[in-house]
Design brief:
The chain is an alpha+beta fold. It has 3 helices and 16 strands. The longest helix has 36 residues. It is elongated.
Length: 252
């Protein structure tokens, strides 16, 4: 009798976790709400300028939120924007907890691990196909034999197994071709994913006076916060200034 009481909230939690969420930004004093490519964004103006833009307004399930951060050095000397200078913290029931911001090398390591796992799966599948191909050369033949003797006709059945090397070789060639194609597709996709990380993820950069520098940051999914929106703050430390952005993920 206890199970329905326990399972009901768990089911509700699962549905909420899988629901889509809209990212909303709230402008604080000294910040201006703008729109970039149809997506609401924020610009924080102090001595330097920092812009924050969600990479997408709508998140599916428990996807990681990603943002584009761009900074402008309005000073007279170079300033360095560091990955470690970007942080996030979640706010639940008035309490704050650190929210992980993934660095470039961490994302690269994740992609390389994903590729290694998929490559292992392809190798296992290829080994299975190779075994099946080797057995494809065996052909079972079943027939009947009619014999006539002193006591009349006699009927019998027989089964014979033969091995056809050509049939086995053709099956082996097909299995090898399929495995090689899967490996090639996996390598191509992996290279494409790594190139995307290289070109989009924000890394350490020295920003010259008057220069804009930007890139993507990726956060861990914020924790479930009941019926309240998932609220967090993204802080960009640049040029001795801290620019804080208020973000909320509202379940649709």
């Amino acid at each position: 009798m206890r199970h329905p009481i326990i399972l009901a909230p768990l089911g509700a939690l699962f549905l909420i976790g899988c629901a889509s969420q809209t990212i909303q930004l709230s402008a604080a004093p000294g910040q201006e709400a703008i729109v970039r490519d149809g997506v609401p964004s924020l610009v924080s103006k102090k001595n330097n300028i920092v812009m924050l833009r969600p990479n997408t307004r709508l998140l599916k399930g428990n996807a990681r939120p990603a943002f584009t951060v761009a900074v402008r050095n309005s000073g007279s000397k170079p300033e360095t924007l560091l990955e470690t200078g970007i942080s996030a913290r979640q706010i639940i029931d008035g309490k704050q907890a650190a929210l992980r911001v993934y660095h470039y090398q961490e994302l690269v390591q994740e992609e390389q691990t994903r590729q290694a796992i998929h490559a292992f799966g392809v190798a296992l599948a290829g080994a299975g196909r190779a075994m099946s191909a080797a057995n494809a050369g065996y052909v079972n033949t079943t027939g009947t034999v009619n014999a006539y003797g002193a006591n009349g006709p006699t009927y019998a059945t027989y089964t014979a197994t033969t091995y056809d090397p050509l049939r086995a070789q053709l099956a082996q060639n097909e299995a090898n071709a399929q495995t090689q194609a899967e490996i090639a597709n996996l390598q191509a996709q992996g290279e494409q994913n790594l190139a995307a990380l290289e070109h989009t993820i924000l890394k350490d950069n020295t920003v010259m006076p008057g220069e804009w520098i930007g890139g993507t940051i990726v956060l861990e999914p914020p924790a479930y916060s009941g019926s309240a929106p998932k609220s967090y703050v993204i802080t960009v430390d640049f040029g001795g200034e801290q620019h804080e952005f208020q973000v909320a993920q509202v379940t649709n």
